[in-house]
């Protein structure tokens, strides 16, 4: 019997990594087995992954030696960082560097780096249409990931660069769901005007990553962008009205108004939405749902995701 190839998965108890572990477990004859990386192997989430057949090991992205041990003997590594846990682009870049060096040292044959666009290639710091944040970023949680791409190449790691997109799950967990207005009607507020918002069910990202690993090393050196669907704000609101059975109105506000909301990360997200809006064509073209569907045939559209998750969306 051929031995299964190990895919070491950073963030395995989270959205992206968890989706990948579950995609591997759902395909027992696929030739791969997941090694789930967590900081604490004793949690319920970690134990649930073990029950799916994953090997569960401890490592921390801030501890390079622990990553090296976790990647040892693995064919593949799924590398993701956790910007919102610390909101420091510099820390995110350092963590990407640690993963790249650990993957090289462990002899990983195929890494996937979960990245985003360095928006400064479209909006240089001198461009005043959106504020520069933290001294040298336009969209810090995007720019840091894009800036870190070269760390994988420089380290000599065979890498596929996976451009993810907006999680539909943000409507559940990130406070972006519809909110009741003074008139009692639910409103979806986004600074997107008429532009399309490429998005994806976070669970489907792992399925796409699994598709990339299954295809073999043909994707090494390539950048692959994924989304499940590309609805406008108005189309999202219309889909919610249909699926939730309650009217949801789209409120298009300005990016300035969004940035002024004042919650931690509001400026970063305001710039992000403005980037989506102002560079709609490039952003949508880089994340073709057909590409994602070829990698992951069970990819969900927005409305499919909504139908499955409607009871989880808080309606305030
Ligand atoms: N929200 C969106 O729309 C969106 C869209 C595209 C990209 N992203 C990006 O996605 C990234 C986050 O990925 P995710 O959503 O899959 O994360 P997540 O669901 O928040 O999961 C994070 C998991 O990573 C682990 N983790 C946290 N800090 C760690 C550390 N120092 N070392 C090792 N493991 C650690 C935690 O596991 P343990 O506690 O078990 O260790 C946790 O379960 C962010 O960088 C974000 O910018 C988000």
Give the oligomeric state of the chains in this entry, treating copies of one chain as homo and distinct chains as hetero.
single chain
Instruction: Write the H/E string, N to C.
Output: EHEHEHEHHEHEEHEEEHEHEHHHHH
Order of the strands making up the biggest sheet: 3-2-1-4-5-6-11
- Can you give the helix content as a percent range? 40-55%
Count of beta strands: 12
**Low-confidence parts, pLDDT < 50 over ≥5 residues?**
none
Give the radius of gyration. Answer: 19 Å
Number of helices: 14
First-last Cα distance: 55 Å
**Helix-strand makeup class:** alpha/beta
Query: Main beta sheet, described?
Result: 7 strands, parallel
Give the amount of beta strand, in percent.
15-25%
On the 0 to 100 scale, the average pLDDT is: 97
| Ligand species | NADP nicotinamide-adenine-dinucleotide phosphate
Key features?
binds NADP nicotinamide-adenine-dinucleotide phosphate, three-stranded mixed beta sheet, 42% helix, 316 residues, alpha/beta
Describe, in short, the structure shown:
The protein is an alpha/beta fold and 316 residues long. It has helices at residues 15-25, 44-51, 64-71, 83-86, 89-106, 140-154, 170-173, 202-214, 233-244, 255-259, 266-278, 280-285, 289-295, 302-309, and strands at 5-9, 32-38, 55-58, 76-79, 110-115, 159-163, 166-167, 179-180, 186-190, 199-200, 223-225, 248-252.
